[in-house]
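Budget justification note: compute hours in this period were largely spent on complex prediction jobs such as the one shown. Inputs:
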Amino acid sequence: MTMTDKTKPIGLYIHIPFCRSKCPYCDFYSFSPREELIDEYTKRVCEELKNTHHTFDTVYFGGGTPSFIGEKRITEILGNVAFTNNAEITVECNPSDTGDKERSFDFSALAQAGVNRISMGLQSSSDSERRALGRRAGKDEVLRAVERAQNAGIDNISLDLMLGIPGQTAESLKGSVDFAVSAGARHISAYILKIEENTFFGRHPEKYSFPSDDETADLYLKTAEALKEKGYIHYEISNFAVPGYESRHNLKYWKLDDYLGTGPAAHSFIGGKRSFYPADIKEYLAGCERICDGEGGGEDEYIMLSLRLREGLDLDKYEERYSKTVNPGFTEKCRLYADRGFGSFDGRIFSLNSRGFLISNTVISELLAELD
Ligand code: SF4
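Corresponding output:
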């Protein structure tokens, strides 16, 4: 078990469980609230953060839609957070809340409060594909929102793309990638659409024409290729960044660093222990405690998370961390996958490339089967 050094800054995730409406593919904990509920929620989050003894070097407002609560409440929450001078502070924004001047979402106020990174859901630059995903803003509105953030001095912009959207083609995807790059996104996340049973897509798949699994895999590889040509590093299965713009906050999840999560459905990992708040705003507002979720950071998890990253699994670090030696069957598997063109292995560091990321579940389960 790892002991926590309380003087060491950790990550902070703040869940904002509100959205204007529900997207047809989404199964996150979020809903459309009354105005008074947002105020009550803001107050509870502020109280909780004021009383925490931690210092944070990354802060991430995720959701839900953080921009939906407006910049005043976001800055109020940040006013209760002890963050370091060089902290990376990200706010997820929906262009529908922020794109038009008349809606007066004030990016400058966010920048003054310390926000230095904005993450926006572009999903696609094709308005018909965006509509299929239930997105109200068109691509012009997305562009205006990005420009307004940049003009406020926030140049670290991350845009999300989605792969496997109904009607998506290699050509429309190329348009989306080019759009994100030319908008100045320093970080691009490309997620493969997963149809969850309890969503509108999951209940009515017959209404849509989704690309097949093979077509979606091809879209993934095309995205990786196009972004590589533009100078982005494919540093994690679903994430690409101009060097130096990798998400410091998300890297904490993948590197098993400590983070505190607040809000319903938010998870924490501190001192080797996992915990979470129930996905129920009433319980959260009533002051419920986090539920313990046992020990985390075991060797299976370490291997799985390391192989999500381009830097891969360093066997020296693994052996030191878990006081053991990997057996020859494990290294043979690493060599085999490297020889087949799915990654590289120099005898001590095994990493997957874009083709390898596509089959990472298979690779990981084969490697885990080789552990003693
Ligand atoms: S905006 Fe995001 S969190 Fe909200 S419903 Fe849509 S996908 Fe889900």
